[in-house]
Amino acid sequence: MNGNLYTLFQSRFPTDPEACCFEKPDGSRVSYLETDRDSGRMAGVLRAAGVEPGDRVMVQVEKSVESALLYLACLRAGAVYLPLNTAYTVHEVAYFFEDAEPKLVVCSTQNRIGMAAMMNGRFGAQLHTLDGDATGSLMEALAQATEDDRITELDRDDLAAILYTSGTTGRSKGAMLSHDNLASNALALHQIWGWQESDVLIHALPIFHVHGLFVAIHCALLNGSPMLFLPKFDAGAILQRIPRATVLMGVPTFYTRLLERPELNRDLCANMRLFISGSAPLLAETFNEFEQRTGKRILERYGMTEAGMITSNPLIGERSAGSVGYFLPGVSGRVADDQGCEVARGTPGVLEITGPNVFKGYWRMPEKTATEFRADGYFITGDIASMTDDGRITIVGRAKDLIISGGFNVYPKEIELLIDEIDGVKESAVIGVPHPDFGEAVVAVLVADGSRPLSESDVIGQLADRLAKFKQPKRVVLLPELPRNTMGKVQKNQLRERYKESFH
Ligand code: MCA
Ligand code: AMP
Fold first, then answer.
1. What is the pLDDT of residues 453-466, one digit of tens each?
2. 408 CA → ligand 1 middle, Å
């Protein structure tokens, strides 16, 4: 049997040739038939560009139906899809390019010159453009392409995607995800969230991360459901679509922003079956306020790039504020001490998991991969959790130094390394503090070396072309020295406490 994930999707596509797969923001529709036909033709374009099974295709483009087709085309051609946040600067993209050695790069027309200069003919990589309005050289090639219904024969352990996640060392790691990793997770989610024939998904998440790319798109494709596809989060556009939709997936910021809108009420949401939240902790106050306003209890689930979705609150049964629910079917885990030994129920420890969803390791980093797994094969998530006797999980903290801002991960080490390079900086500590919109916001605390005057705008200005906007500190403070413990370790807890009111 072909282990290609696309084969699974195709087997679930509706038989009605008119059935809608994507609805574009202007209301025009792309049917399942057209999705199947055009992803096949686009796979042909990739093959014509020299892309072979196992080759990486690095993509940094605006979200559009056509960019989703490009993802499906990569699956069909057996290529390894490597999506990048559109906010990444050329400096950041250069690292991924050098690390992944893609055969094809797809970027916006606007970034073409900078991208080509960065690529500089290396690895023999081809360059195509694709823009949010369905133009660009890829679309021109697609217009010339003939029908091609092939789906490359693959083993289910072959790679489908590499998603980069920054690390606590400041160096990004490419998480290798196989067709089976993605398929098993999609099937589990489709089952536990009780997808129904009448379901319609509002898709407003970016499609360069697990949440929007895999969780949302895969569930809809497995169910043959329409996706009301929006280029980005837009409260007005979502509220407009809610009456004819049944499922919304978002990060907590989606829900706090929707709550700011007076139109959000029970009548508007009467048709909605599921509001799902994840990627960052959902505050109990958001959960409660949302229930009061709409009568719906948000279903919170928990996951990470390396493992897709890990736990979920139940569809039927108690959805508790503050808890992320139970392990997905096929996934098991334990809350452990720093030796990997399970601790007593109710005691916090690091969550370790195993299952068909767990990734195949970090791209070209076998040693790093080895340190993230226990000898018995359990993956160490780096999240601190506690588990009840009946297996309900609550995430109570993070063992890893990570900030999650509006659902995007920011690793302090990466920013500290760049700040420390700035002339006049002696040392720095980057922390996350509560933020009413983004959940957490990045704050940089630094100590000057006295060689030159330093200002907040000065520091931010120097980071601008090196760091994506969402990673840039929203506040920079100067201190005479950083608080340290007797071992000399910077006390970030003290700094978080000191600056916790910065955005309130
Ligand atoms: C935008 N900005 C941000 C963020 N987004 N700053 C910090 N954190 C952010 N997340 C910057 C913009 O550059 C802008 O800067 C200013 O903040 C305001 O932008 P705004 O227009 O309000 O932002 P937006 O375009 O509306 O985006 C906010 C957003 C978006 C909707 C929350 O960030 C988003 O879609 N987040 C979802 C992330 C996601 O999909 N995560 C899943 C990862 P300026 O004004 O100075 O120009 S997958 C994952 O984590 C695991 C697997 C899981 O469990 O799902
Ligand atoms: P990423 O590396 O982008 O995949 O982010 C994964 C991390 O997001 C996890 O390790 C958690 O720290 C966090 N996360 C995801 N979902 C939740 C949630 N529902 N509650 C708390 N943290 C979450």
1. 999 999 999 999 99
2. 6
